[in-house]
Amino acid sequence: MSVYNAVALMKVHLWKLYTSNLIIKEYIDSVIASLNGTAGNAHSFDRLDELLSFAVLPALFLEGGNEELNYRRFFTINGLISLRMENKETFEYTHDFISKLIDAGILQACA
Prior knowledge:
Low-confidence stretches: none
Largest sheet: none
Order of helices and strands: HHHHH
Number of domains: 2
Shape: flat
Structural class: mainly alpha
Distance between the termini: 26 Å
Mean pLDDT: 79
Number of helices: 5
Strand content: under 5%
């Protein structure tokens, strides 16, 4: 099972738990509420800020994301958001296309 399928499966199981178990629903709702913060109270967002600090890539504002990228990243992924990479056919098609571009000398890749 690919990591994408495993994540999708976990989401299904979590949703089933959330919709069928009141204790789990109330707990998840309370955690989300504590992370959401309150408009006008900057310190109420401290827990969310702490959670986001663990992300591999920093969260960027959508409008300013391109300007905030560092020199190591050459493009944004905003245009790829709608691709379902957990779908085997999509994954293979997109990677095959990229390989053909590299083979044709249109793209360069480095390890």
